[in-house]
Amino acid sequence: MLNDESGNPMDDLSRRRFMSVTMAVAGLAATGALVGCSRTESISTDPNLLTLWYWNRSISEKLLDSARRSITGTPRRLRTDLIGGDFDVKLRTSLAGRAYVPDITGLNSNVALYFPSEDQFVDMNELGAQEHKADYLPWKWQFGVTPTDRMCFWPMDTGPTAQFYRTDLFAAASLPRDPDEVAATTDTWPAWLEAGKKLKRNSGVSLLANASIVYSQIVNASAERYFSPAGRALFQDPGGTIRRAWDVAVAAAQAGITAKVLTPAEQNSAWVSGKVASHIEAVWWGPILKSTAPNSSGKWAVAHQPGAPGNSGGSFLAIPKSCKDPKAAFDFITWLTSPEAQIQTYEDVQLFPSAPKAFESPQLSSPDKFFGGQDVLGVFQESAKEVPITFISPYDSQVSEGVLKELTNVETQGKDPDRAWADAMNQGIRQLEKRGLMK
Amino acid sequence: MTTTQARRDARALKQSRVARIVTHLAILVGVVLSIFPFYWLVVMATNTTAEIFGYPPKLIFGTHLFENIGHVLAAIDLFGALGNTLFVALSCTVLVMFFDSLAAFAFAKFEFPFRRTLFAVLLATFMIPAQLSLVPNFVVMSQLGWIGSFQALIIPGAANAFGIFLLRQLAAGAIPDELVEAARIDGAGFFRTYFQVAVPMLRGGLAFLGIFTFIGAWNDYIWPLIVLVDPKRQTLQVALAQLSSIYGTDYGMVMAGALISVVPLIGVFLIGSRHFIANIAAGAVKG
Amino acid sequence: MTTSPLTTRRPVSALKRYWPQYLAISPFYILFLVFGLFPIVFSLYISLHDWDGIGTMKWVGLAQFQYLLVDPRFWNAVSNTFIIWFMSTIPMLFFALVIAVLLHQNIRSKGFYRVAYFMPNVTSMVAMALVFGSVFSDTFGIVNSALKSLSLDTVPWLTSDWGIKTTIAVMVIWRFTGYNAIIFLAGLQAISSDVYDAAKMDGAGTARIFAQVTIPMLRPVILFTVITSTIGGLSLFTEPQVLLGNTGGPNESGMTIVLYQYNQAFTQFDFGYGSAIGWALFVIAALFAAINWRLVSERTGTKKWGRTK
């Protein structure tokens, strides 16, 4: 098989060697050809297509359909990618990997997470953001402004909070039924604690599912949180928000007015069964409650929460700097969040507007059968107007993680609150030291 | 034969009958436990979510398989993911089989300088856990511009120590020196000898390595999870996890998706099981 | 090979002569350099910084490791990993041995049994984690339904600490028992019958034969399975992540070391800390490998009827 009659053996050897070399090189080259195949940063290469990343039910599909055909006032169209799983993880992965970055992206309430990487996003002030500022709730607008005063995260929907409560359970424990009376009875946190104790005493029902709820919502309603905009740590201040929220939460836990249920599944079952009589959350919790506990329709109502109302949740829109056409992207964003569009959004996906003008629409005030005929949106509109302007730092969670964990320890394990607070502070400080933020 | 002997024999025979039945029973219990999750997967994939969640639960197949599959396909591009996974797994397999056998042949049959040292280094790389390089490899990938691409899944493992080690063992034994020598005398270069002598002789080992690599690439989860971003370019495992995280409550649909991702591999395995099982066992015993 | 003038030249010529072989083995070393060695060194570098992958790296020295040493979440993950490994490996090896012994008898359809026992090992872990998640679901799982029908208390498989660990351990056992059984079977089949005959002639009973002949001769195989199960156990990720999410479920009962690394590096984008965790895992793995090696293979002196390979 290896005998070659044509020519002398040395030529053969070198010819075969040449062949085998080329084959080997070709093999490596073929794999090498796969190298560096996709160096595009943006997801799609079609210049007229802008890609938007969003998650399920965060934007009205009707509005998106219109934009898919054409983005008003621009030659561009929209392509939407529904991102499941961990939205932030995917987005940050693509930003870190500098690949498949969308042209426009939705962001959830934790935009502060992106403040350290704000240079990855377009400053919409340069695109004319200030002209629209007056259309939006000031505290919501401020959330999207970075510490360096760049407007990177555009307001989409909001989550003003209030207390949802079971009128029948309140009445059975000789507490008021009417929302205004409930608000008056629980207008301060100490008063609210008393109401909770009365509820427990008279009918054995818990006021809240767990103490972390009251902690988080007090923080959500405060003008100062864990850090100042300049980065100064506020969370250890004895009279500061965090300590205050902690004290109320601990008092609630120790007074026994919480049901100590921690997982969503258990909480759902507690609301359904009437073991827990109220919840403090944002307007978007209403539809969730309706689907979780449909049989309790007519028994719920909404009242203002103790102290001042806060904001929980809400989303934003941002333009990554690799966007093909930031101007068109900005036009889409302002179109999507105009007061008229926000009314449509509310109709389609029940997301609460960030533009006060939208509140004036009749669709946003109507009696809700589930809440005994109450116009609940009216309550939230009032809440929305009173939410304080506040600063959320990217490093809030480094501290809140430990605080929430220790709070649970106090509530469920009976840990000594002072020790728990010390441990929580310790953990937060250690985390911050690890990140080089605290010496 | 004395009577005691005969009686002892009879008792032994009876004992061995009982023992055989017990043995078979025990083995069957094991088989049932092994297969049960697959059975249950089909049960769930063919029923509606309500039936799955009901009490008492339905224990037999239902009729809603196509309905569930329809929901899956409306939710995510599962067949696209299937195609992507096929592409990735096949590419890995081909590359691994080629590069590993080439290297194994070189190590087994040729005494080149530093051969021993180089092979020792290769063995040493076994000691390194993959988790050590997850984070930095992500950075390497982003520098290369490979995030979200399939190169990131295929290239890093294109030549692995395990395959080279395994095939070298095989090559050392299975390829006779005389054949290699004869080829050299006939004027064949290294690569020609590889194609004409080594590959045919290594067929069994290559088949095993191929199936092993294919299955591993198909089932790989953590690395594709980290590296793939575009929802339109995902592998099956990632797509399935995605499906479950978005639509987790629609069990019928999620299980239908799981079924689709399990079936192809079972098919491949059943076809190649003979090679695979024999070789894995042999490798373990010799290793 | 006859000596020729070529072989007496300097080594450079040998390099030239053996270039095809070097080319043949080069893909592995090139890939290892780029995707194996460099990342390891780079990982050490990253672990001395604070970095989110997008912005700039900030030098923090050993702060990540200092944090790691007292991080309760990390040590919880280590403890979980080991407990789950313990809970899965021991029953798994026992069952695998039993099954191998059973299959070693003269029975028919061995081929079918081997395929059936092997199937769990080759199937998608994500899919099976979903299936097990539903089987062991607190409220809708058939295990709890079965318990209910027997008037027993249901078990919080996915919400309690031991329930979670048990569920994960069951998944691992299910996945690897058949695989290891097949391997043990091959090992059993490799023991020549003369050894057994010699033992029987000396009057040893079945139990004694098993303990003093079979097990010692299976030692290399057992070592192999323990090592592979250790590697698998230390890198446990898919099952807890798919079953319980990125934080390992309530109270992080299912958080394993690799899951914690993924959690910190790729969901919190703390690359520095993720790299530090990777190194901690390496150290733990090395320690464990050393202990394993000493424990399982440290036996000197030959047994009466055995022959060490």
Can I get a quick summary?
With 287 residues, chain B is mostly helical. Chain B is 77% helix and 0% strand.
Helices and strands, with pairings:
The complex is a heterotrimer of chains A (439), B (287) and C (309).
Chain A lengths: L8 H26 L14 E6 L6 H9 L7 E6 L4 H11 L6 E4 L30 H6 L10 E5 L2 E6 H6 L6 H7 L3 H15 L7 H10 L20 H14 L9 H10 L4 E5 L2 H8 L7 E4 L11 E4 L7 H11 L2 H11 L2 E2 L2 H4 L16 H11 L9 H18 L3 H18 L5
Parallel strand pairs in A: 1-2, 1-3
Antiparallel strand pairs in A: 3-8, 4-8, 4-9, 5-6, 5-7
Helix pairs in contact in A: 8-9, 9-16, 16-17
Chain B lengths: L2 H43 L3 H5 L11 H11 L2 H32 L5 H10 L9 H11 L6 H4 L6 H14 L2 H9 L4 H12 L1 H17 L2 H6 L8 H11 L4 H36 L1
Chain C lengths: L10 H7 L1 H28 L2 E2 L7 E2 L3 H8 L1 H33 L5 H13 L2 H11 L6 H8 L11 H29 L3 H9 L4 H29 L3 H7 L12 H11 L3 H27 L12
Antiparallel strand pairs in C: 1-2
Strand order of the largest sheet of chain C: 1-2
- Counted by DSSP, the helix tally of chain C is 13
Number of helices of chain A: 17
Distance between the termini of chain A: 77 Å
Q: Would you tell me the structural class of the helices and strands of chain A?
A: alpha+beta
> What count of domains describes the coordinates of chain A?
2
| Largest interface chains and counts | B-C, 94 and 94 residues
What is the CA-based Rg of chain C, rounded?
25 Å
Q: Domains counted in the coordinates of chain C: how many?
A: 2
Instruction: Give the SSE order of chain C as H and E letters.
Output: HHEEHHHHHHHHHHH
Strand line-up in the sheet with most strands of chain A: 2-1-3-8-4-9
Q: In which range does the helix fraction of chain A lie?
A: 40-55%
The CATH topology label of the largest domain in chain A is: D-Maltodextrin-Binding Protein, domain 2
| Major pleated sheet of chain C | 2 strands, antiparallel
What's the CATH C level of the largest domain in chain C?
Answer: Mainly Alpha
